[in-house]
């Protein structure tokens, strides 16, 4: 199932991991590692220069992959971050290619002068007739302007007379430009041109080949498919504003609602255990920060939270001001009075998001967290599981009324899959028919009709 996942704009690592994630990231080939200790001397969006301490290595330049297309049409994009060497951008990279060939009646040509096209239709083309990098193209827009000579059957008697009189000068051509197919849109991120004149190896009778790469970003919407790491896949059935989502007693809204009927029959209880364990780890961050603050300083958490001492120092100042405003002077008083919402406010004032500071939990296969350890961790993070077993009171976001029964709330790692509704939804009113059977063609790519088979009768 994870092979069908698409990269996201802001990816995050799971709180509950198995220990194999680091090895998978290394073997993916998408991570650039430093070969030795050194200093970054230059960096931008496309490359990074590292001056190594070793004289043998010296200074090396590493080029980042920008909007590379994978075999699954997803986008692989490396971004240099302060703490990570790699980040992946969600999206889809589509490649469209066109070739100019040498025919018996003349050569095909890439040009901006296309018969029957207005200047509005050619607004994104350069002087050679190729779309500009950075242009936002939509369905039907011209990517490469191309003309081909008309065959004898396509040429009228008047045009043949002009050809006989003026020879090649009056040879008529037809529009065979490469256009963006239906349902597609995005930004042109790369243009590759190969030509026989430059010595590129092309196919027989191919004069020039042009590839256009179009990258599109998609928001999650109704009909898209998502999955956890326990086979708990499902389709998004509704997207509502955050103020309409159910919220906890301290005002924290939930992000996603899952149907509880998807657990008992499939018996994948791992998703419930992950939910409780990750929720405990996230709440424990707050307690660890409070314990370190009252115990001598937040700088001691730099290794645990993978943050620099300067970042934690600014967080310490905001926390000190927040506690002074509420006249909180002891650790026990802070644990009892401050809620998750207070923690979110403190983090936002420090420049963090509430889900950016996490304690990672490692549970290897066949040697994972035991039930007793999970209960102890929930107690240590302040979750009372004696009465509700990890369930909490929730309130309706629209009416503000309390739900009748407590509901399981936790933190899970979700993936968005490549099965998106924009790629699947299709309808037609009038379209092509088969010349032999006089029935509509089949398939979305041929603008075909919907099959109404014997099972539908």
Automatic annotation (TrEMBL):
Record Pfam families: RNA_pol_Rpb2_6 (PF00562)
Listed name of the protein: DNA-directed RNA polymerase
The keyword Transcription appears for this protein: yes
Top-rank EC class of the record's enzyme: transferase
EC code(s) of this entry: 2.7.7.6
The keyword Disulfide bond is annotated on this UniProt entry: no
UniProt keyword list: DNA-directed RNA polymerase, Nucleotidyltransferase, Transcription, Transferase
GO cellular component: DNA-directed RNA polymerase complex
Domain DNA-directed RNA polymerase subunit 2 hybrid-binding: 93-445
Gene3D superfamilies membership: 2.40.50.100, 2.40.50.150, DNA-directed RNA polymerase, subunit 2, domain 6
């Amino acid at each position: 199932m994870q092979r069908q996942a698409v990269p996201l704009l802001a990816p995050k690592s799971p709180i509950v991991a198995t220990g194999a994630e680091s090895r998978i990231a290394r073997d993916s080939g998408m991570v650039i590692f430093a070969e030795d200790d050194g200093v970054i001397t230059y960096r931008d969006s496309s490359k990074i220069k590292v001056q190594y301490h070793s004289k043998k290595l010296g200074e090396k330049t590493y080029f980042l992959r920008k909007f590379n297309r994978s075999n699954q049409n997803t986008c692989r994009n490396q971004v240099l971050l302060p703490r990570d060497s790699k980040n992946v951008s969600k999206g889809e990279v589509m490649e469209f290619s066109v070739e100019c060939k040498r025919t018996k009646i003349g050569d095909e040509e890439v040009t901006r002068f296309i018969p029957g096209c207005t200047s509005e239709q050619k607004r994104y083309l350069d002087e050679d007739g190729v779309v500009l990098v950075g242009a936002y193209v939509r369905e039907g827009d011209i990517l490469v302007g191309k003309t081909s000579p008309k065959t004898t059957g396509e040429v009228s008697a008047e045009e043949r007379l002009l050809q006989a009189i003026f020879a090649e000068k009056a040879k008529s051509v037809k529009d065979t430009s490469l256009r963006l197919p239906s349902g597609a849109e995005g930004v042109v991120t790369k243009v590759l041109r190969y030509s026989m004149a430059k010595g590129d190896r092309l196919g027989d009778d191919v004069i020039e080949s042009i590839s256009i790469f179009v990258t599109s970003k998609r928001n999650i919407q109704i009909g898209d498919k998502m999955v956890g790491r326990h086979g708990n896949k499902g389709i998004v059935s509704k997207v509502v504003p955050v103020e309409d989502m159910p919220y906890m007693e301290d005002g924290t809204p939930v992000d996603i609602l899952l149907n509880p009927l998807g657990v008992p029959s499939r018996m994948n209880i791992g998703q419930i255990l992950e939910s409780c364990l990750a929720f405990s780890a996230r709440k424990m961050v707050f307690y660890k920060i409070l314990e370190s603050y009252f115990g001598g300083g937040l700088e001691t958490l730099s290794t645990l939270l993978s943050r620099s001492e300067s970042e934690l120092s600014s967080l310490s100042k905001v926390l000190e001001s927040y506690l002074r405003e509420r006249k909180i002077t002891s650790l026990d008083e802070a644990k009892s009075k401050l809620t998750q919402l207070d923690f979110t406010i403190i983090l936002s004032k420090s420049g963090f998001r509430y889900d950016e500071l996490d304690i990672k939990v490692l549970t290897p296969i066949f040697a994972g967290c035991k039930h007793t350890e999970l209960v102890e961790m929930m107690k240590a993070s302040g979750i009372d599981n004696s009465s509700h077993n990890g369930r909490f009171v929730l309130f309706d976001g629209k009416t503000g009324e309390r739900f009748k029964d407590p509901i399981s709330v936790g933190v899970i790692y979700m993936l968005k899959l490549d099965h998106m509704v924009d790629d699947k939804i299709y309808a037609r009113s009038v379209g092509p028919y088969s010349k032999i059977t006089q029935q509509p063609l089949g398939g979305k790519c041929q603008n075909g009709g919907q099959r109404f088979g014997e099972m539908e009768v």
